[in-house]
Amino acid sequence: MSNLVFRNVRHQYDGVNSVDIAHLEVGAGKLVCLLGPSGCGKSTTLRLAAGLESPIEGEVSIEGEVMANDEIFVGPEDRRVGLMFQDYALFPHLTVEDNVAFGLSHLALAERRARAGTMLETVGMAAAARKYPHMLSGGEQQRVALARALAPSPRIILMDEPFSGLDVVLRNRVRDETLKLLKEMGTTVLMVTHDPEEAMRMADEIVVMREGEIMQQGSAGELYNRPADGFIAAFLGEVNRVPARRNGDFYETDLGPIPISAAIGEGAVDEILVRPEAIRFLPVVDPKAPTGEVVLSRNLGAFSLIDIRFESGFQATARVASFYQPKVGDRCSVSLNLSGVFIFPRPGNSE
Ligand SMILES: Nc1ncnc2c1ncn2[C@@H]1O[C@H](COP(=O)(O)OP(=O)(O)OP(=O)(O)O)[C@@H](O)[C@H]1O
Question: A Pfam family this protein belongs to (predicted)?
Fold first, then answer.
């Protein structure tokens, strides 16, 4: 069953479209990430779901109930959604327990306390119930904010860049803990991030937005391995942009011939996108394979990044297992794994 559904939802700021979504669904118990560059409409989409903005067209519904359309508008306080925004800080003058109990005013005092206690236990913060937010670390504050968002048993949690205020090490830990908890509780989540890695780590489904519209949606694997266009391919991970020239049924490139059958659609091609891990590094020169010279070699622990310059002057980066540690100046050959090679012809331009 779908929890949150957008149908033909359009929103404008000052007469300009900020969001124009034909269809968006967040299934019950799923974690969906809205991903895209700054200004693409992610936060506005979340605010439309929360009831902090209203659409000029279309319909937003939660659990089958209309929240917003031409005639109906349900305010944020009546949507039973949990909000966890980047600037949605804890109330500094309330204790941790009172922060978590804040959204439970419909319950009797004893029940509020009991529910707040249970939620604090769930996030591992029961011992801090009487403390004030300034006495907690960033990660602990985040856990309390999560307890506060979950306490009223919302139908969906809406998160806007919830981990962006945390440093890198803490962010990974808090993110993993949060994900585990959300999954254990079966919570439905719509989360905004501009960080592809974060989206890939957390989401059941990623929705890539650009200029207010949805460009592609799918699992991390689908988007990374079968991106719909060059923008999405490059947004989700590094790519080499390899110059290509058509020759019969192949494109000639410095990385070797690539069959035209690998192209997605028809039209002119002057560059082919190749993921760094799709370049197989051959430390011993193979006279039958494309050959170049190592110009940069960086060992990043789990893998190495090796920049190779070919005869034409073109340089490509290969990502290889870190036991390969070639030196600058070494000669090497390469071969390609076509599953990391993307050809997006420009439609309308024949070759
Ligand atoms: N209060 C506002 N008034 C006018 N225009 C706005 C307002 N808020 C956002 N916009 C514009 O609407 C568009 C979508 O903004 P939105 O904040 O939804 O994007 P975003 O993808 O969340 O960006 P970011 O990642 O930078 O937060 C942008 O062009 C932005 O400039």
Answer: ABC_tran
